[in-house]
Amino acid sequence: MTPVNRNLVIPPSAQQPGTSSAPPAQGDANTRDVAPAQHPQGTGNTVMVVPPSRQGRDSFVNDAATGPVPPPGRPPVLTQHGGAVLDHPQIANIYVGDYWKTGQGAADKTRNDAYAQEFGTSKMMGIAAEYGAGATSFAGSTITSGASPTKFTETDVQNMVKQQLQLGTLPKGAQSIYTVVLPPNTVLDAGGGVTSLNGLGGFHGSVAGPDGQPIYYSVIAYSQGRNGIDFTGNPQDNVGITESHEWMEAMTDPDVNSTIPGRGLGWYDDVDNGEIGDLAISQLPLSQTWQRDENGFATQLEWSTRDGAYEIAPKNQPPPPPPPDGKEIKASAAPNAAIADNSTVTSKVHFDDDLDVQKLTANLDILHTFRGDLVVSLTSPSGKSVNISNREGGGADNIIGNFDLSSQFAGEKTQGDWTLTVKDQAGGDVGTLKDWGLDIIGKGGTPPPPAPDTATGSVTPKLPIPDLKTVTSPIVIDKDLDLSKVSVGLDISHTFRGDLVVQLQSPSGKTVDISNRSGGSADDLKGTFDLSQSFAGESSKGTWNLIVSDAAAQDTGTLNAWSLNLAGAPPAQ
Q1: Where along the chain do its domains lie?
Q2: Does domain 327-443 bear CATH number 3.40.630.30?
Q3: CATH topology of domain 453-569
Q4: What are 292-325's pLDDT values in tens digits?
Q5: Residue 180: partners with Cβ closer than 8 Å, 6 or more residues away
Q6: For residues 28 and 51, is the Cβ–Cβ distance under 8 A?
Q7: Which residues, listed in sequence order, are joined to residue 293 by a DSSP beta bridge?
Q8: What is the largest CA-CA distance in the chain?
Q9: C-alpha 48: how far from chain center
């Protein structure tokens, strides 16, 4: 396969925001006239380069776009060439070097991780959906140790990602985009003479993993000064704009230039010679290629085929539903259950809260050596079942991540058992359902009953129990409860317990047998006795009497002690 032209080059001298409304000239070395770098066997990347001639380095006119921007010339025509699109992509960040442990580096990392987290909930996902891509989730980040590299190549990126996966610092995922973020002053080198010193901001690509399946990655230069692409003069903005460019391309065209069998080009404009992220950079002045999203993060505009404009929020899309404002509930299980060949494993979590689901996220940690064997589904208490993964992912390992099932379970009742089912439908590979959980936000429904209030009492009367006599011992309860639980603790010494009739009498006068001449010749009557069913609904307030009668001659005993444990709700007002 001949590599498609994927380079985006803007010289630093042309990176002057707001200086021109015209597209760059052909001589500016934009996406149309820079030859793509050659890629090692089994890899492919796309390169974002803004030549220095289009970058403003000394004075910035930060007139970012304030809404949809129409194309200045021919509208782009993105075509699906049959390649994959990521329908549940995950972003995982890898920060290179000890800079990210410094004060400024840690602040940069915190903001950048916040952007990765927010990106999947931003309105940009409405544009991604036009091309069949799903909303991103954030799988976390890690920092590698060591001094900042002088130069970082594509081979370095691939090795870094493979190393972190082998170390287990980030979860494996068939649709993960591992984003390598470089420290200040490290030169990113895409090969073929294309580096961050002549306008390279980043690129995305893939490399074949040990199982032959693609591992997707992007790499981002720390754009500052004359290194990288300087959109705003703020390196945090520059990094974020570049990331949004690469993430959108990795979602809609993840296998560009891949030589892995069966992998090929996804969404691409054959006339303008670019992926979705390249088009705005190619057609618009640099200052008009980005805008701040609803949370203040600088984000590159992308082409909306439906709206016919560059934008970060689809204008013709119905407004998104308001964020869930209900109660958040969580439940998890760690069955650590073996998944044998051609077997089914189930695990349950339970909710007492009776809510209507607004948002539901399933968090999975399933280890397996061939995830394409597995069908994983979630079933609600009502019996509704939704597939989370249906033999997807081919030979990739494991299903680990957070899966948004809000639309599928919207309105379902939360109360009851939720069941995760994992089916292995092929031989040769096995695994483990390590742990899983549900995070739900819900509203309305019937709230769970309040925890019952309690009342207790105990006495040690040490009353003798003579032959053929009755003794009574009282306990006074001041608290008024409608009883749901009544238990009695007894300590009665006697040389023939079968002589005894032991009863509990409530303040209302209701009398219930605890023991009626049972136990034969055994000694003593000691233990705890549950009388909840007999006294349900009775009032707790008043005098409770324990009545002990000896109904036969020759044997005697002592009522040493007894206790009363009550629970219930305060009476309705």
Answers
A1: 26-311, 327-443, 453-569
A2: no
A3: Jelly Rolls (2.60.120)
A4: 998 999 999 999 999 999 999 887 665 555 666 7
A5: 94, 96, 152, 157, 160, 161, 217, 218, 219, 220
A6: yes
A7: none
A8: 119
A9: 30
- Tracing tokens 């999975």 back to the chain, one arrives at 364
What gap in Å lies between CA 514 and CA 563, rounded to an integer?
A: 13
Could you give phi then psi for residue 187, rounded to 5 degrees? -85, 125
* Location of structure tokens 């990331």: 243
The stretches in the chain having pLDDT less than 70 are: 1-47, 49-67, 316-324, 445-449, 573
pLDDT tens-digit readout, 357-369: 998 999 999 999 9
Determine contact, residues 86/249, Cβ cutoff 8 Å: no
User: Using CA atoms, how far apart are residues 454 and 50, in angstroms rounded to an integer?
Assistant: 72
CA quadruple 426, 427, 429, 432: dihedral sign: positive
User: What residues form DSSP beta bridges with 485?
Assistant: 567
What values do phi and psi take at 251, rounded to 5? -75, -40
- pLDDT value at position 21? 31
**Could you tell me if 359 and 325 are in contact, meaning their C-beta atoms sit under 8 angstroms apart?**
no
Question: What is d(CA 312, CA 342) in angstroms, rounded to the nearest whole number?
Answer: 46
Contact 353, 414 (CB under 8 A): yes
Angle at 377 between CA 372 and CA 378, to 5 degrees: 155
378 near 385, Cβ under 8 Å? yes
Domains 327-443 and 453-569 share a fold: yes
Does residue 208 contact residue 214 with C-beta atoms inside 8 Å? yes
In one letter, which amino acid is 184?
P
> What pLDDT does residue 32 have?
25
- In whole angstroms, what is the distance from residue 32 CA to residue 49 CA? 12
- Rounded Cα distance between 519 and 552, Å, is 14
- Phi–psi pair at 166, nearest 5 degrees: -65, -35
Are 393 and 399 a contacting pair, CB within 8 Å?
yes
C-alpha 68 chain-centroid distance? 31
Tokens standing for 312?
Answer: 């970060």
